[in-house]
Amino acid sequence: MRLSTLSRIPQISRLVFAVHLGLALGYIGLVLMAFARGETWRADFTAHYTGARMVWEGQGAMLYNLKAQAQRQREILGGRYLYDGLLPYHHPPFVALALSPLAAMSLRDAFALWAVLTLLLWVGFLGDLIRWTRSWSAAARALTVSAVAALPGFLFSFLLGTFTIWTLVALWAFYRALREGREGWAGLFLALASAHPQATLFPALGLIFARRWKALAVFLASGVLLIGISAAVLGSAVWIEYLAVLGRAAMAFGRQGIDPEAMINLKGLLARLLGPTRHAWVNGLSALGLALGVLAMGMLWRRPWRGEDGDFERRLSGTFAMGLFLTPHANPQDGLLIALPGLLFYRFLQAAPEGGTRTGRTFERVAVIFPMLWLAERFALGSNESVPLGTIALIAAAFWMGSLRRERL
Fold first, then answer.
1. CA distance 163 to 34
2. Given this model, what pLDDT does residue 399 score?
3. Residue pLDDT, tens place only, 285-313
4. Does an H or E element contain 290, and which?
5. pLDDT tens track for 344-371
6. Disulfide-capable partner of 62 in 68, 75, 187, 371 (CB 3.0 to 4.6 Å)?
7. Would you list the DSSP string of 65-85?
8. How far apart (Å, rounded) are the C-alpha atoms in residues 320 and 274?
9. Residue 407: what pLDDT?
10. Which one, of 152, 171, 145, lies nearest residue 16 by Cα?
C-alpha cells in the first residue's frame, strides 16, 4: 500500500492504522523472542513434528498409537513432556506424510523453516487482500488490511506453529476461485484446507446446497487421492485409527492439550457456562448445534446464485462464520479465521445500500477496533468471548440482511 494512499485518509484513521501496524510488527518480535529463548518446544508444532518424525523413521503405521507418540515425543524433547505426558498429533495422515521431510532437521530448525513458510503465506494473503480492496476508499482499504494484520490470532497461530494460517489462505483462495467461476480450482483449494478438516465441513455443505457439482467433485476426488496416497504409504489401517482418535478427542475434557473451556466456539461457550463437570451436556448440545447448522446452511443457500451476484459474499460470510462457531474443535488461534466472514460481509455492505447506513458504519467501527478488543480481553481478562460473540453477530447479520433483501423483492 503506497504512502500516498495513507496520506489521503483522516488523521484518526492514520492513528488506528499505526496502532495496527505496531501490533503486527510486535507479534513477529514476540515470535523471534520465543525462538531466542528456546521456548518453542512448548508449541503445537511439537505435535506436528512428532507425527512427521514417526513417518520419517518408518513408524507411520503406528502414527495414532498414543503410547508410541508419547514415547517418541519425550525422546524428541530430551525427556521433557507436554501436558499430561503427550501433546498428540491429531491431523490427517497425509499431513504427517507431507511434513515428514522436516523431520530430517532438528525440532528447532524445522519449526523455524515452518515459521518462514507460514510468514510467506501470510504476506501473500495480505498482498492479495490489498489487490481485492483496490476499488475501496483509501481509509476503508488501509484500515481493513491493517485490522486483519493486527488480529491476535496471527500471533497465536504463528507462535504455536499451527495450520491456521495455511487454512485461512486455502479458504481465501477457495472463495476467490469460486467468485470468479473457477470451480475446479475452488474444489482443489478446499481440499488443501483439509489439513484442518473441520474447517472444510461448512464450505463443502455450501457447495452441496448451492449445487456447485464440479467444485464438489474436485474436492472429493482430491480428498480420495490424498487418502489413497497416505494409505498406500502408511497402511490403510491408519485411517481407521485416525477416525477413532478424532472421536476420542471430540469427547475429551482437560487432557492431552484439549481444553473446551478455552475454545472460541459454541462448545467453548457451553463449557464456560455449564462448567467443566457437565461433559455430556456440553458435547450433546454442541452436536445439536452442529445439526441445526446443517439445516441453516440449507436455508442460506436455497436460492440460486452466480459468482458475480452481490449477495454471494453475504452467504459465504455466513457459511464461514457458522463453520467457525459450530466446529467441534476451535482453539484461540483458530479465531484468526473470523477474518474471512468479516471481510466478506464488509464486501457485501460495500456493494449494498446498507453499507452507507448506521448498520454499515457500526460494522466498520467494531471491525476496526476488534483486534485491540480481542487482545485486551485475552491478556487483561484472560477470557475468550470476543471471537464467539463476533461469529454469532456475523451469522445473525448474514441471515438478517438476507431477510431484508427478500422483503424488497
1. 19
2. 92
3. 999 999 999 999 999 998 877 666 678 99
4. helix 279-300
5. 999 998 887 655 577 778 888 888 899 9
6. 68
7. -HHHHHHHHHHHTTT---TTT
8. 26
9. 57
10. 145
**How far from 170 is each of 110, 125, 193, 194, CA to CA, in Å?**
22, 10, 5, 9
Do 158 and 31 touch, CB atoms closer than 8 A? Answer: yes
By the 8 A CB rule, do 364 and 312 touch?
A: no
**Per-residue pLDDT, 120:** 96
3-state secondary structure (DSSP) of residue 99: helix
SS3 90: coil
Identify the domain containing residue 223 by its residue range. Answer: 3-408
Contacts of 351 (CB under 8 A, 6+ apart): 310, 313
Q: Torsions phi, psi of 255, nearest 5? A: -145, 150
Q: How many domains does the chain have?
A: 1
Residues of the chain under the 50 pLDDT cut: none
Query: What is the grid cell recorded at 253?
Result: 475434557
Using only C-alpha atoms, the chain has a radius of gyration, in whole angstroms, of: 21
- Residue 41 grid coordinates: 518446544
Burial bucket for residue 184 (CB in 10 Å: 0-12, 13-18, 19+): middle
CA-based angle 215:220:222, to the nearest 5? 95
Chain centroid to Cα 195, Å, comes to 11
What Å distances lie between residue 406 and 300, 401, 402, CA to CA? 12, 9, 6
